[in-house]
Amino acid sequence: MFPGQRTYYAEIPAHQYDLDPILSNATPPARTGAECYDRSLTSRRYALVGVAFASIISCCCITIGIVILATHGVSGVIPLMRLSGSMQSSTLPAEILSLVFNLLVTICTESTGFVHSISLRFALISESRLRFNANLRLLTAARGWRNPNGALLNGVMAVLLIISYTSSPISDGSHVISVAVAGFPILLLGVALLLQTVIALSGLRAVTVLTWSSSPFDLTAALIHHMQLTPVPFRCMRGLSKVDTGPSKPSKSQPSAYAAHLSIERVVFSLWLLVIACALWGLVATFALNGVYGYPQYKWTLFPGNNPGLHFLAYSTPNIQWWIGVIVFLAVIQGPMTFGLHCAELVANVIQNENRWRCATSRKGLQTATNPLKASLASPLGLAILVLKPVLHWMFSIAFACQGSGSDATLQNVVLNMNYIQIWNLNLALGIFASLVGLSAMRRPRGPQPVAYGHLQTLANLVDEWSPVMW
Fold first, then answer.
1. Of 342 and 300, which is predicted with more confidence?
2. How do residues 388-415 score in pLDDT, each as one tens digit?
């Protein structure tokens, strides 16, 4: 590429891929005099506060873990809650604390994930490879192994995300008088959260952020303003999936996100594979338990209670090898679900982008600048994913729990306990989740307004004049 030469975005055919080099012979527009996009400094403040919170939580976890390991060794724990009476035989306190930990992990990973997605977005823009406003953050990478947004560190981010949910620091038993936090898992959790923060901030330093807004309209306007994107002539009424050139009459029906976006089709397919895999897991656990205990009467409950379970990796006193083996074992099983929930965010973001775009035909029009918190809460599917993500991870921790007993500050008689009733509960929840995502992705927008689904070139072609409010 010669100095001064630019690569411009052009329309892409039928099924839409997220990346690939983009070429266009269109003439670049002149730079506009005034900026017609929102830099969204409010989103920047929210993001930095979230990253600071994640850093504080990670440092606290690391400090607690080091103190436990230094004073009580690898098998050391710190009691969090003293139990008395009938609560000593109940798993409810431990499950509540486990849910709280999952909520904290979700807040931390979502905060660092937002910053990481912003840096990745502009890293792809610098390479003229960004097609959609929303992308699969952990499965999309910039060029270069040493790039903070490259494939290597993106893979590290994916592993760290899985470890964050796998390293559940809650240890409980049915014959103890307290719920305790184990030292090694909480130390590993703190390190995983801290490294995610470092990678996200490193990626941010490597790019120039034009706007912190999650809106495709602000991003498209910013790229046009900085001459990094140019509208293609004679495509002002052609939506995302139309490949013919020249003017077009408005269509009476519009394609769904599932039909127009290839990555969404793959996401929906992978979610149903996850449901099938969980069902097979439940069948194996059911037959195994019936083979061990015969056919006892089980109670269908949310929590394990007194129902028997399968025991794995039992050990009298946990050492470093046992902890590493357990965490790797759980990460392999829990990893696909973590990836599936991460990929489901793409469906929510793409549909949210399209819903905002279709506000242009409403009476109030399309307001390009919105409050970031209000915009995120206005997406039902996005809000459902945000709530269900920690809940589903918590349900997994119930189905496959690390339990132990002991005295004082030492953990003993540890074991992985598989509860088949809770596996079926998780399978039911995953089935409902996959149905919700699939139906949302297959819903076809109404009206003649062409669809864009956050595709930047399509928005540049469809919008004639950029302003804070558009009709």
1. 342
2. 999 999 999 888 877 777 666 777 777 7
Question: 79: pLDDT confidence band, cut at 50, 70 and 90?
Answer: confident
User: pTM here?
Assistant: 0.85
8 A C-beta contact, residue 77 and residue 171? yes
**Distance of alpha carbon 38 from alpha carbon 428, whole angstroms:** 42
Distance CA 457, CA 169 (A): 46
**Distance in angstroms (rounded) separating the CA atoms of residues 381 and 387:** 10
Contact between 169 and 186 (Cβ < 8 Å): yes
443, amino acid identity: R
The per-residue pLDDT for 29 is 43
Question: For the segment 345-389, what is each residue's pLDDT rounded down to a tens digit?
Answer: 999 999 988 888 888 777 777 776 666 667 677 788 888 898 999
Instruction: For the chain, give percent helix, strand, coil, nearest 5.
Output: 55, 10, 35
List the structure tokens of 384.
């459902």
Residue 312: CB atoms within 10 Å: 13
Backbone phi, psi, residue 410, to 5°: -125, 130
| Positions of E strands within 339-408 | 366-367, 400-407
**Residues 303, 172: Cα–Cα separation, whole Å:** 13
Question: By the 8 A CB rule, do 112 and 56 touch?
Answer: no
User: How far is CA 351 from each of CA 130, 156, 397, 432, 442, rounded to the nearest angstrom?
Assistant: 18, 28, 30, 19, 10
Name the residue among 213, 431, 417, 256 with its Cα closest to residue 350: 256
Find all residues with CB under 8 Å of 437, minimum gap 6, and list them. 267, 268, 271, 344, 347, 348, 381, 385
